[in-house]
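Here is the promised in-class demo. Please do not try to memorize the tokens; focus on the logic of going from shape to residues.
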């Protein structure tokens, strides 16, 4: 017989239930984390070594955060949420079982099965090509697409005659995606939706593409559109999610104009979490179901597995066979495989070890768990709310993977903030404090055009704090928020920065050097 719960115990259970349902009201928490630490790494650098970090930042890194030695940071390394995940014990145990055969190893078959499990049955009929990370997929995809178009290997109805070259529009291309597209002589416009420019925290899907602009482009005469690209979540546009409604609308246009539709799926699960939470009609669906629906609308996708694959390395290009894409470009897959064999390796391992594939399979299982995503996105939001509470202007609503400090507002009263690169200066000072953030604004996305420094169009000007998955506790992020606050409260004393090397280079934010100027 089952043990009955007596009334006096029921009373307390109902109280515990109430507690667990409460939102945190910092510094009070009502729910434990959905995981516990299984290993920790002590830091071997002192918080108070400020002068040492100043010297490192100036003499070694030249104020370029990419060049600062990560192991010298006692605080939060928020440079990227990519490849920085703490893996789970389940993943590590799978890694030990890795099959290191040369090609077609066990992990490859398991990954194929997991892709159908995570993204939906239709992907059983797809070509899975593994790469070492996301940008290698982009490079292969756009190079082979350019060769295909140049050789005229397109089916009759696929491509309209183009006047001014080919265009690959997006809701927001990531920087390497854009660079790969442009390097292959395509245009890469970002069609941010109208809501993106409105400062209304109730607008939940600011990552959407501007449907009317997209349709005008598809129907217009200015150029053929060989592919529509869609980044979920929209990293360049402030880590904002896209709605299912927007995905469906793009799918309709894609069918109408015979322009294939691909996802850049790096943060697919986080995007699904927003759809479940905020889009009408999805509250009773599971994350796994929502992900599957999202992926019914595309002909293919590429994914940097270093984000929602919950691994430290890996990427994949997945192309549906018998789709609009393969109809339009019948020789594409064969060309793509040639390219991959010459550059990465056999498509079944693509530069990864067999054990990496096993870890990834496990990562795809974990990432769609509701309790994982609630905690993960909740942590990013708690960090963002701590900044807001201290008056720091950030992009709202807060996205899924990062908090974006609005540099135009941060330095609103400060003259010459653009020309004195105050965003870069902010990241330089934060290195001294012990935390690493990244400028994704007028320096990263702007460029020198005919000797004139030109801001990005549409204008974006952020410093991004990307939160690694399962790495930090709220205490760490709180310390980072307080360091940003010190700088905000003294923003009129933040020095300028000048570029000493690389102002006119492509992808210059990875390579340039800077110097503080008073
Ligand atoms: N697409 C998106 C949306 C990304 O955010 C990234 C990487 C890539 C593609 C490229 O993937 O790094 O595996 O080659 N984003 C990282 C970031 C680097 O910090 O946002 P990758």
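The designed amino acids, position by position:
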């Amino acid at each position: 017989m089952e043990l009955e719960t007596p009334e006096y115990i029921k009373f307390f259970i109902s109280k515990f239930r109430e507690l667990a349902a409460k939102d945190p009201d910092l510094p009070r928490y009502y729910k434990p984390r959905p995981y516990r630490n299984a290993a920790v790494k002590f830091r071997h650098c002192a918080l108070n070594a400020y002068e040492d970090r100043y010297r490192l930042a100036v003499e070694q890194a030249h104020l370029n955060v990419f060049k600062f030695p990560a192991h010298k940071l006692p605080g939060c390394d928020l440079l990227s949420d990519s490849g920085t995940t703490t893996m789970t014990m389940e993943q590590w145990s799978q890694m030990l079982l890795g099959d290191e055969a040369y090609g077609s190893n066990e992990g490859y078959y398991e990954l194929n099965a997991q892709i159908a499990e995570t993204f939906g049955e239709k992907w059983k009929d797809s070509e899975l090509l593994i790469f070492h990370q996301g940008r290698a997929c982009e490079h292969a995809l756009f190079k082979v697409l350019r060769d295909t178009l140049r050789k005229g290997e397109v089916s009759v109805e696929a491509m309209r005659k183009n006047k001014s070259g080919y265009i690959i529009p997006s809701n927001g291309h990531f920087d390497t995606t854009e660079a790969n597209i442009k390097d292959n002589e395509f245009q890469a416009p970002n069609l941010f939706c109208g809501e993106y420019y409105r400062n209304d925290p109730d607008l939940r899907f600011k990552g959407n593409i501007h449907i009317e602009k997209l349709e005008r482009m598809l129907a217009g005469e200015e150029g053929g559109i060989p592919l529509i690209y869609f980044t979920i979540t929209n990293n360049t546009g402030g880590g904002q999610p896209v709605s299912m409604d927007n995905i469906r609308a793009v799918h309709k246009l894609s069918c109408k104009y015979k322009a294939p539709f691909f996802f850049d799926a790096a943060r697919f699960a986080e995007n699904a979490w927003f759809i479940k939470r905020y889009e009408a009609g999805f509250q009773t669906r599971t994350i796994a179901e929502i992900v599957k629906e999202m992926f019914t609308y595309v002909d293919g996708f590429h994914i940097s597995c270093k984000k929602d694959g919950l691994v430290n390395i890996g990427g994949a290009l997945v192309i549906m066979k018998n789709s609009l894409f393969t109809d339009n470009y019948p020789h594409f897959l064969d060309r793509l495989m040639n390219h991959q064999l010459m550059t990465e390796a056999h498509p079944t391992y693509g530069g990864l070890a067999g054990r990496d594939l096993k870890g990834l399979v496990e990562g795809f299982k974990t990432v769609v768990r509701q309790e994982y995503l609630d905690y993960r996105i909740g942590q990013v939001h708690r960090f963002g709310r701590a900044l807001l509470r201290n008056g720091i202007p950030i992009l709202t609503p807060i996205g899924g993977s990062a908090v974006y400090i609005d540099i135009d507002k941060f330095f609103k009263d400060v003259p010459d903030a653009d020309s004195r690169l105050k965003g870069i200066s902010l990241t330089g000072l934060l290195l001294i404090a012990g935390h690493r953030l990244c400028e994704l604004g007028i320096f990263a996305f702007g460029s020198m055009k005919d000797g004139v420094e030109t801001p990005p169009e549409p204008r974006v000007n952020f410093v991004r704090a990307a939160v690694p998955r399962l790495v930090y506790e709220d205490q760490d992020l709180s310390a980072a928020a307080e360091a940003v606050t010190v700088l905000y409260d003294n923003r009129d004393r933040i020095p300028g920065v000048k570029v000493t090397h690389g102002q006119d280079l492509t992808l210059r934010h990875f390579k340039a050097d800077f110097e503080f100027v008073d």
